[in-house]
Amino acid sequence: MAKITFITSDNETITLEGTSGSVMALAVDNGIKGIDGDCGGVCSCATCHVHVLPEHVAKTGEASEIETDMLELDDDADKFSRLCCQLEISEALDGVVLRVAK
User: Fold this and answer.
1) Which residue has the higher pLDDT, 16 or 41?
2) Where is the 2Fe-2S ferredoxin-type domain (predicted)?
3) How far is 3 from 42, CA to CA, in rounded Å?
4) CB 5 within 8 A of CB 71
């Protein structure tokens, strides 16, 4: 089980627990504001954009090439950006903190 914390654009901090599936699905299923997941998790819409807190980047790893290409279309993207549809819940993510992009 992994505890994953989201910080919304309203600075609300929400910690959820998950055992499998994508972080996007966990967020959508629990109504995290700002995570829409319009494409259903196939890396084609960027409506699940999050910024990984710098001290947690080792837990998520770097964005893939296709993910980076999608993020380039978002003005709010930076080197800590990830699409949470591409983050699979595992013990490696336990304790990760993700700031929901605007």
Assistant:
1) 16
2) 2-102
3) 23
4) no
Amino acid at 67: E
Phi, psi of 95 (to 5 degrees): 90, 0
Model-level pTM?
A: 0.93
In angstroms, rounded to a whole number, what is the distance separating the alpha carbons of residues 1 and 29? 17
pLDDT of 51-98, one tens digit each?
A: 999 999 999 999 999 999 999 999 999 999 999 999 999 999 999 999
Domain boundaries, the chain: 2-100
| In 18-64, alpha helices (H) | 23-29, 57-60
Domain 2-100, what architecture? Roll (3.10)
3-state helix, strand and coil shares in percent for the chain, rounded to the nearest 5: 25, 25, 50
Going from the C-alpha of 76 to that of each of 29, 43, 92, the distances in angstroms are 24, 17, 26
